[in-house]
Amino acid sequence: MLLIVLWVQSYYWVEVFQLPTTKNNVLQIGLIPGRFLIGEIDQPRAWWISHPIPAVDFRDIIVSGDFLTSGHIPSFEEMLQMKFPGHVSLPYWLIIIPTGIFAVAPWLRWRFSLRTLLVGTTLVAVVFGLIVWSMR
C-alpha cells in the first residue's frame, strides 16, 4: 500500500534521499514522477533528505538543456540518463507487482517437499550472490 501511495505522490512531489555508502560515495534514491531512481555518485556527504519540490519544476529541470542538437527529440528516460548518468530508473509498477505477489503468496495453500525448499533457497542464494558480484 505504501508503494502505491509513493507512486501517486511522485506525480506531485519529487524527493531525493542520499545515503553514504563509503567515505567518498553516496547512494542516491529519488522518487520522481512515475519512477524510482537509484544510483551512486562520488560526493562525500552525510545522510541527507531533500526538501520536496513540485514535480512540474522537476520536469522543467530535466527538459532544460540543449537536447535538439541531433534533430532527435529524446524520451523522458533518455533525458534522465543525460541528467543522471549511471543511475537506473524503474517504473513503480515494476516494484509494486512483485511486492504484491510476495504479499499474497503466504495465503496460497501450497504443498511442497524438502527438495523444493532446498532448490528455492539455492536460487535465492544465487540471486543474492549475483547482486553482490555485480556491485564489485
Structure notes:
The protein has 136 residues and is of the alpha+beta class. The protein has one domain. Helices cover 45% and strands 24% of the residues. It contains five helices and six strands. Strands 1, 2, 3, 4, 5 and 6 form a six-stranded antiparallel sheet that branches. Strand 2 (25-32) and strand 3 form a beta hairpin. The protein is globular. The mean pLDDT is 80.
Summarize the structure.
The chain has helices spanning 2-10, 55-63, 76-83, 92-104, 114-135; strands spanning 13-20, 25-32, 35-42, 48-49, 53-54, 88-91.
Low-confidence stretches: none
Largest sheet: 6 strands, antiparallel
Category by helix and strand content: alpha+beta
When the domains are counted, the total is: 1
Question: What is the CA–CA distance across the termini?
Answer: 33 Å
Indicate the mean pLDDT: 80
Percentage beta strand = 15-25%
Tell me the helix content. 40-55%
**H/E series:** HEEEEEHHEHH
- Tally the helices: 5
List how many beta strands DSSP finds: 6
Q: Based on CA inertia axes, which overall geometry fits?
A: globular
Radius of gyration: 19 Å
